[in-house]
Amino acid sequence: MKLGQEITVNIGDDGRIVLREPSNREWNEFQSERYPVGRRNQMKDNSGPARVALFDKLVVKIENLEDDQGVITIDSKDRIPARIKGQIIFDAFEAASDVDIKN
Questions:
Q1: Distance between CA atoms of 31 and 25, rounded to whole angstroms?
Q2: pLDDT tens-digit map of 1-58
Q3: Residue 11, beta-bridge partner list
């Protein structure tokens, strides 16, 4: 099996988002941001915002995706809902499954 440098995510009928593989450093930073140690050495669940931040770092291409404001591009990726960004990161990198988001 050849390891790829990118992961393609299908959204709806013809939408596609391409993510690059995270570097080891990016992945380690993501892991530490997910569950930071808070007060009294208790872990805090920060996985949602950490997944969104990782998505924003890794996205390299957006195709055939639009919302009420028009076409979504790399420059307007902030219009993609956080719940979708989080699910993409979870499915693509944490659950290691094929990613196919139905709207």
A1: 10
A2: 466 788 888 888 899 999 999 999 999 999 989 888 777 888 888 899 999 999 999 9
A3: 15, 101
d(CA 55, CA 91): 12
Nearest to 54 by CA among 28, 76, 75: 28
Asked if residues 43 and 57 have their Cβ atoms less than 8 Å apart, the reply is no
Q: Hey, how many other C-beta atoms are within 10 angstroms of the C-beta on 95?
A: 11
Which alpha helices (H) appear in 11-68, and where do they start and end?
24-34, 47-58
| Alpha-carbon separation of residue 70 from 18, 80, 103 (angstroms) | 19, 12, 16
